[in-house]
Amino acid sequence: MNKLIEAEFINAVHSRQPVAGLTHGFYRYPARFSPLFARAAIKTFSQPGDAILDPFMGGGTTLVEARILGRQAIGTDINSLAVFIAKVKTDVFSDAELSRVSSWAEDVASSLNLHKIPERTNSWPGPNYLRNFSDQATWPIRKTLELSLDRIGELSEQQQNLARCILLKTAQWALDCRTEIPNAQQLRKQFLIHAREMTAGAKDYAEAVRSADRLYKLRGKLNTLCLERSAVGLELEQKLKGSPAPKLILTSPPYPGVHVLYHRWQIQGRRETAAPFWITNTLDGSGASFYTFGDRKQKELKTYYEQALAAFTSLARVADKKTLVVQMVAFSDPPWQLQRYLEVMEQAGFKEVRRSSLANSRDGRLWRCVPNRKWYANQERAKATSKEVVLFHQLAR
Length: 397
Known about the structure:
Elements: H1 3-14, H2 35-45, E1 51-54, H3 61-68, E2 72-77, H4 80-90, H5 95-111, H6 139-150, H7 157-175, H8 184-216, E3 224-228, E4 248-251, E5 265-267, E6 271-273, H9 275-280, H10 302-318, E7 324-330, H11 334-348, E8 350-352, E9 366-369, H12 382-385, E10 387-395
Helix pairs in contact: 1-2, 2-3, 5-7, 5-8, 6-7, 7-8, 10-11
């Protein structure tokens, strides 16, 4: 890398700009990294037409950036909510489809009547999906969502997904980690704001994809693949058979010893709800530790490191000698957890690549600070987890 490229990458790592632009604002997915970082990493370490893999894709930031840069975008996640979000964010909508969703949102918002009884079909979710979501403060939110979802069938399947994502973002705005719940009128107003912003973002993304196809002359050769599955066993995935090895594995795996609530919201304190799965018509059924490689309180994080080893062993099998793994990771107790993490990477078949020109600390690595980061957990390790490190690895053999 020349000095200019190095400087651009380092600036992107340290950027504190809010997550915005294109479809990145469709949902506030926990612990997501900056689109600027993803963009800089993809531009720095790959070329147009290369395959970019994010095995812990979360809300799909890597995939969005890879696709508009003319790369093959592949992502996996065990969270059905994450897969839903990533798919919507990377869908290429026509202007006509976006106009239809906008009209639907305007019509729904203008005709909502909270006295109306919603139709609850046989596919209606069980009580756990709406737990802590029916008290005096939250029932208008729930009822508004029920009535809106009643009309979702007026749209095509692809349009329905965008409409559900608009409702998801609006409900998250109204409920997640809020002490004061908005009323139905405020919710309706915000729903229309989000509908306009998100259809505009989807249009910008579609135009960026088409522009990239023209620029790199890759039309018809690229697509985006979002798989609901574990990274473990990825080398056996039929949808990847015959595909070239990824040039770049760009990801942010679950953080060792850090509790992040990836799958639920917290309402009026720490009361959890699985409502996001109801809104998006996806399935929940797993505890928080399922999404974080294990219980953060387990001694020596045995399960976490076992899961990490299995995942990166599979990633080593889909990689080749030209594949670069770039990760952004944080630790609740860095002195021992980082060393153990590096040992796991070595056991999986990777060797750390030190890039002294990018380093900003005595250990020869690139660290960044995330001030005022809020986790869904106690703040005992807040100082440690506010620091993230960028790790570089390649196959050892």
